[in-house]
């Protein structure tokens, strides 16, 4: 294999790792079969990396041009120029090849890889004499049958400018899908690399500490890992997402530092963390049946992981899944508790109510129900109780058979003076003046 072939092979292998050969073949073949146009994937030097010959072959015209080595080189240079122009502007580039055919290129830009999908081999007008003469000039010097080439050119498909533009746009969509798939893999790789660097730095720092402080310090670190696991349970239970993620990284450092060469042991230790985190999630209010389903899913995923780097990223995503579920579940339960507290207040506003009474009714601590009520409705329990009582008072004040004293008592205010002060603060007028306006 010469140096040029090695370069092409290296480029193709790199692209296949990002996107996958099957996906590349499938997308190019789907485009070719749906449009009837041959599509090829080229690099920035015009080298063909993937071709859809098995789906759509070159036209006779192109076969004859490429049968000559100089003609094939000219085709490659046309592709390289089209790739450069398409990548320069980041959009489909419609061009005439060296032999005069209409083609177009859609750019693919993935990190260090620059390439394009090329397709076409059509005409946009009826071939006239001057065009055939122009072709004769273009192929001059090639060892081919000029008359046969001119005849083949006259048989080429003629496409309108609208169809050419539509095909170019569709090709651009295919190229963007390939880039999006590659970008997803690149982002994951970068995330793994970044986490690997962080963990490697922690591991090296830990090793230096162990060397400096000897066996005793190493035992202390082991003991600290148990403390960290207990701390992790507490943080998960309390829904402390950011702090929990940071602590998990430290635990992963502990685990990898001692088991870096034993992937099976690493998986076992991390599965122990899954159990610890899931139990803490249940303690934090998550549904046990849902947590057990997640555990089963995580166990299956864990079996398929083959490297410590993937394992660390997987552990991070596992924790995030648990924390998001716990947060969602807690929010739902909080909303239900707020609704029950509000309903209890509306039903019992005439009675003398305290925060303890309301908390007991919804089976939560006074401090917790006060906090979530304030967060959910923007007012305290007592403020909400006052608002309910004032709204009821307004309804009663509109009825002639009730005087202000009766209204105050019936709406839950024991002190008429306090009732008047609260009513005026919320409504801007005294109860007596409100009653005059209402009647």
TrEMBL record:
Q: Name one Pfam family in it.
A: HTH_18
List the molecular function annotations (GO) for this entry.
DNA-binding transcription factor activity; sequence-specific DNA binding
The chain positions of domain HTH araC/xylS-type read 339-437
Organism the protein comes from: Desulfosporosinus lacus DSM 15449
Keyword list (alphabetical) reads:
DNA-binding, Transcription, Transcription regulation
Matches recorded under InterPro entries: Homeodomain-like_sf, HTH_AraC, HTH_AraC-typ_CS, PocR_dom, Tscrpt_reg_AraC-type_HTH
UniProt name for this protein: Two-component system, response regulator YesN
Q: Which SUPFAM superfamilies match?
A: Homeodomain-like
